[in-house]
Specification:
The complex is a heterodimer of chains A (132) and B (156). Chain A has 132 residues and is α/β, with parallel strands linked by helices. Helix content of chain A is 45%, strand content 18%. With 156 residues, chain B is mainly α. The chains are: A alpha/beta (132), B mainly alpha (156).
């Protein structure tokens, strides 16, 4: 029952999220998971497109970004997004599990490091916090 | 009986297959959590995502097989990238045994051990085939229930 309560949420505000993952299965799954909670999502499959989208002025409440990305990797994309003055919540969601990767991703600017899978127990508290 | 179809057996099997898969460690709780997200607005979400996963997984296994057959030298960096991607997607869909096979594979790839990698690839292919077979059975049962006029029991 406690587990069920942890994963239930009804958002009061319309939240938006960007999912940055090169793997189609992961990107689609993460977007579907967010949408199931009423979050409006966009997805891109590389770091450069993520930076370009943010630089164009599109705003998100949440960015979910993988570490290993083509063209521009997740670490550099995160740094560039933060350097633009973007302060939204960023989750580094990656299959990497080492402490050095975790430290590197946090140092690059993500707020939370999550080893895949992104599951409701990780996501729901964050959505609650964003929803105020 | 319903138009010659035993609806009870269909629904029973539909409930049994995922339980058996979880019990055997083929899928983990992540898969169950994903099934809970299916509703009237997205009734086939797991089947659609599983199809994407099957496509990606087969491509990655094939790429690794080709890389390991290269006479001029194995590109272990490419192997590592494939394993990493497959580890991520398999964990995201809840394919626990495929994920564990990737973790084991990683250690041989890191050690640039070609023979070990070949054995791991074989194991990975086996786990993938098992998963695909079980999930396709589940999705087939789902279609049969709907075709027979029944409704899919939702996971709570």
């Amino acid at each position: 029952r406690k587990r069920q309560l942890l994963t239930e949420i009804v958002l009061r505000n319309r939240l938006t999220a960007l999912v940055v993952d090169a793997d189609t299965t992961c990107r689609v799954l993460e977007q579907l998971l967010l949408r199931s909670y009423g979050v409006q999502t966009q997805g891109v499959d590389n770091g450069r497109d993520a930076v370009t989208l943010i630089a164009s002025g599109v705003k998100f409440n949440l960015i979910i970004i993988d570490m290993i990305l083509p063209i521009l990797n997740g670490l550099e994309a995160t740094r560039q997004i933060r350097d633009m003055g973007v302060h939204c919540k960023m989750l580094g969601v990656t299959a990497c599990s080492g402490e050095s990767e975790r430290q590197a991703f946090l140092a690059a600017g993500v707020d939370v490091f999550i080893e895949k899978p992104l599951d409701p127990e990780h996501l729901v508290p964050i959505l609650r916090e964003l929803d105020g | 009986m319903w138009h010659g179809i035993d609806m009870y057996s269909l629904v029973y099997s539909f409930g049994f297959v995922p339980c058996a898969c979880e019990h055997q460690g083929i899928v983990d709780d992540q898969f169950t959590q994903l099934r809970k997200l299916e509703d009237e607005n997205s009734p086939h979400f797991v089947m659609e995502v599983a199809s994407l996963f099957f496509e990606d997984c087969e491509k990655l296994i094939n790429n690794m097989a080709i890389a390991l057959e290269q006479k001029q030298g194995v590109d272990f960096k490419q192997i590592d990238e494939c394993i990493h991607q497959l580890k991520g997607s398999s964990s995201s869909i809840g394919a626990m045994r495929v994920k564990n096979a990737c973790i084991a594979f990683r250690s041989f790839s890191d050690g640039q051990n070609r023979e070990g990698c070949l054995r791991c690839l074989q194991q990975l292919s086996h786990e993938y085939s098992l998963l695909k077979n079980k999930l396709q059975t589940l999705f087939r049962l789902e279609k049969e229930i709907v075709a027979a006029g029944g409704s899919i029991p939702r996971v709570h």
